Amino acid sequence: MITAVRARGEAFLADVLARFRALTPVRVAGDVVVVVAVVLLDLWPGPWAEQKASGWLVVAYAAVYLVLLPLRHALPAAVMVVAAAIPFIGPALMVVLSYTAGRRIESWVRAVASTAVTFVVVVLLWDWDARPLEIEPVYGMLMLITIFGVGVALPFLVGRYLAQREALVQAMQEREARMRGEQRMLSRQVRLRERSRIAQDMHDSLGHRLSLISVHAGALALDPSLGEKQREAIGVLRAAALTGMGELRSIIGVLRAEDGPDDDPATRTAESIDSLVGDARKAGVLVSLVRGGQAHPLPSRVSHAAYRVAQEGLTNAAKHAPGAAVQVTVKYEPDALVVEVRNNPSRNGSPDGEPGVGLIGLGERVRLAGGILHVGALPSGGFRIAAVLPYEETPLPDEPEDEQEETQSPGRLRKWAGIGSIAGASLVLSVIIGGFTYLGAQPVTEVVPEQTLDRISVGQPEAEVMALLPAGDEPLVGDGERKSQAAQEPPGSRCVYHITDEQSYLAKGTRVVRFCFKDGKLVEKKIHVQRNEP
Question: Torsion-angle region of residue 55: left (phi > 0), alpha (psi -120 to 50) or beta?
């Protein structure tokens, strides 16, 4: 547990140091501008200006801002949640912190969790008693969701969308660079292949000409009519031709080194294993060849793979177990060709190194031929290479799954990048617009006309009075409550407040009528002026 915590701490410190090293003057200047703008917007003309904060209180407010703003880059989620819990935090700071959290948080699980915790903190700290004009709780919750959506959710989703698009652009740039590298490699392979063809043409043409020169020079040297000087000159000419042929072979070998023995697969087939074994015997290898089964026609790719198995086995035996006996087996089974090369342990008791990387290329060649390759040590201490190859031509196998995923991942990234952020922003906007649409569709009380007031008098039944009054939600009145400046309500009564249709500019307020009911009857009808706050 301690080790895991320490590792996470070291990773966090390394990430912070990497961010500091990546800072540029432009980024530092931009962050300073953001800090100054946020502090000024929230100090004035923001909520703090209305509270008329001054002196050390303003210094404390600014200090909190100057701590939270730089810290948002290192701990974006924690800073966003903490800021939501501070009562005096202004809207500008909350928007910046939410946007930064959306840009910095990579995991969608952490993104959802951090925004959910922030919403819970906002709900728990929301002052339900301070909602204006005693609006109903459902409307208060809609106001809360609107404030959270505009100040937290939307900036967070915008930041997350931009971060996803930035990751997409970076992934596409890396893919483009990788494709350019692959294109360069492909061009190099094409050039090498063309160079090999040119080398082959040089070998066929110039080698043939030099051979003719050597043959003719040798025949001319036998002419009895020539003198010693002429024969000496012809000998020099023949020696030069032979030397030129040797140098040509060496140069051609260098030019064709990239392709190796695979350039001429037509002369390296399963039938050529006999000559391969014969050449090994001439070189001093104790090798035997065992053939079995009825010969079967083989596709060129399979036949060449069989030859390569025998060639690689003999090469490894001569290199890693010099002097040991080698057995090459070519057996035509009813459904497949089996080619096996096994050697005894080295005479010095230990193999000369490990098998080389040629076995890796051999495994790929056998796989492309549709076969299976087995390589491993024998219990007796020797080594064995065996391949099972099909008789039929098989299609080339598909590329490995990991390569397919690497190829397809940019496509998936391009398809889905930013979709979650766009969907989340659409959901937030839908909730806000839908809520206000619902509010706008609700009936609102019309003002009570003077004729209705004349028809209502004290002593009327409550049901009759309520039938005359308009139904629906009561309208908002100025900046204060409808009854804050009214006289004391009659004891034990229930009162309702409405606005009259007769208003006066000179009154400097709103005329409000109060109807109080007790024991099922109207006991008071009184009008007062709800004056505007100075």
Answer: left
Is a pLDDT exceeding 50 seen at residue 404? Answer: no
Neighbours of 105 (CB within 10 A): 22
Do residues 483 and 516 touch, judged by C-beta distance below 8 A?
no
Q: What share of the chain is helix, strand, coil (3-state, %, to 5)?
A: 60, 15, 25
Residue 231: the pLDDT is: 77
Q: Is the dihedral of CA 398, 400, 401, 406 positive or negative?
A: negative
Element (H, E) at 494: strand 494-499
Q: Using pLDDT thresholds of 50, 70 and 90, give the confidence band for residue 478.
A: very low
pLDDT exceeds 60 at position 58: yes
Q: pLDDT > 70: what percent of the chain?
A: 73
Mean pLDDT for all residues in the chain: 77
Residue 306's CB is within 10 A of a number of other CB atoms, namely 26
Q: Distance (Å, rounded) from C-alpha 65 to C-alpha 83?
A: 9
- pLDDT above 90 covers what percent of the chain? 14
Q: How many CB atoms lie within 10 A of CB 373?
A: 21
Backbone angles phi, psi at 448, to 5 degrees: -80, 120
Angle (CA) 492-494-495 rounded to 5° is 130
Label residues 491-508 b or e (16+ Cβ within 10 Å = b): eeeebbbbbbeeeeeeee
Instruction: List the one residue out of 411, 370, 412, 410 whose CA is nearest residue 387.
Output: 370
Task: State yes or no: pLDDT of 479 exceeds 50.
Answer: no
Torsion of Cα atoms, 60 then 64 then 70 then 74, to 10° = 150
| Spatial distance between the Cα atoms of 149 and 158, rounded to a whole number of angstroms | 12
Burial 67-93 (b: 16+ CB within 10 A, else e): ebbeebbebbbebbbbbbeeeebbbbb
Residue 486 CA, distance from chain mean position:
64
pLDDT-based confidence at residue 476 (cuts at 50, 70, 90): very low
Residue 149 neighbours by CB distance under 10 Å: 20
Backbone dihedral region of 200: left (phi > 0), alpha (psi from -120 to 50 degrees) or beta?
alpha
Please state, in angstroms and rounded to a whole number, the distance separating the CA atoms of residues 193 and 202. 14
Q: Which pLDDT does position 60 carry in this prediction?
A: 81
The total number of residues written for the chain in this structure = 534
Q: Please name the amino acid found at residue 170.
A: Q
Kind plus residue range of the DSSP H or E element containing 241: helix 228-255
Nearest to 514 by CA among 496, 490, 501, 529: 496
Nearest residue to 514 via CA among 480, 479, 488: 488
Q: Are 308 and 339 in contact (CB under 8 A)?
A: no
DSSP 226: S
Mean pLDDT highest for which of 232-246, 324-338, 418-432?
324-338
